[in-house]
Amino acid sequence: MIGVLRSEIHRSLTVRSSWASLTGLALLSAAVGLLSEDFWSLFACLGTFGAAVLITAQHYQHRTAVLVFLGEPNRLRVLVAQCLVAALFGVVLAAASGVVVALQGETRQYWATLSAVPLTAVFGVANATVVRRPLWLLAGYAGWVLFVEGLLGKLEGPLPISGALMATSGDPRGLPILLAWTVPALAAAGWVIRRDLAGD
Fold it and tell me: Which of 5, 28, 136, 193 is most exposed, with the fewest beta carbons within 10 Å of its own?
């Protein structure tokens, strides 16, 4: 398990597209935080989700999943390691980019956002494990957030991204809503990760 964790962290920090995306996300979130703490929370959650999807799905896209599964045949351990690494990166990036928000006196929202980020990262990893194609997943969720959660649900319904945003504002319903979406997604990922890689 420790070896898989090290491998995931090393890969994420050494692949140029990964660290460039993570750095860009942190800088963009910090810049948005100067304008509004709510926008910072939105960028922190969506950015964490997107980063988790990219970090996880790259294994399938670049065929390195074969090597990972040869090194660690227990695929559930790989899934756990990917969730931990995505949550770690999400928290570190959100914490760093949110310093601006915290310095403006919005410490309550800062800590509430940091509490929602790990679960958002796990949700992203679970989705990427099931779909395995980052472009499809990110495009699908862009439409989902814009039309279903945004226009229809007004970002207040019992839906995953809405739950994350409710949690960032300190609404006690937010984390349970996000958890209610994450648990089945993680269960599906635990089942699907055993799928053969030949078709991907």
Answer: 136
